[in-house]
Write a structure and sequence with these properties.
Organism: Cryobacterium cheniae
GO biological process, one term: response to antibiotic
CATH superfamily: 2,3-Dihydroxybiphenyl 1,2-Dioxygenase, domain 1
Strand order of the largest sheet: 4-7-6-5
Family: Belongs to the bleomycin resistance protein family.
Number of domains: 1
Largest sheet: 4 strands, mixed
CATH topology: 2,3-Dihydroxybiphenyl 1,2-Dioxygenase, domain 1
CATH architecture: Roll
Radius of gyration: 16 Å
Keywords: Antibiotic resistance
Number of helices: 2
Structural class: mainly beta
Oligomer: single chain
Number of strands: 7
Protein name: Bleomycin resistance protein
């Protein structure tokens, strides 16, 4: 919670502390977090850190610079430095500013915001 809410700016929509569960949101991005509790989780196999091998989560936020500043001030290492990338979406392109970091469990998080200049869609 210190990482997601304290550093990244998410807010708790609701939680069940007794179950180690929280539903959090930032802008239009919503995440469910659950702590590992023996016999109580949806765990399909053994867990080994880092948990996030082979997956990254795209998280759209209103302004990545706010998240980036907070993470940088806390000494969080980035996996990929901020850059503007163009992605084909439907018949057009969308330009986003993005960076990638790890959450405390090793999941890759790709924070992105729409770039100031968009190409036609």
């Amino acid at each position: 919670m210190a990482f997601w809410c304290g550093l990244c700016g998410f807010e708790i929509r609701y939680d069940r502390p007794e179950d180690g569960f929280a539903y959090i949101a930032l802008g239009g991005s919503h995440v469910m977090l659950e702590q590992e509790v023996a016999g109580e989780n949806w765990i399909a196999g053994s867990l080994e850190s880092p948990y996030g091998r082979g997956i990254n989560f795209q998280i759209e936020v209103p302004d990545i610079d706010v998240v980036l500043s907070s993470l940088t001030a806390a000494g969080i290492t980035l996996f990929r430095e901020p850059r503007t990338t163009s992605y084909r979406v439907g018949a057009g392109d969308v330009d986003v500013r993005e960076f990638i970091t790890f959450d405390p469990d090793g999941y890759l998080l790709r924070f992105q915001s729409l770039a100031k200049h968009q190409t036609a869609q």
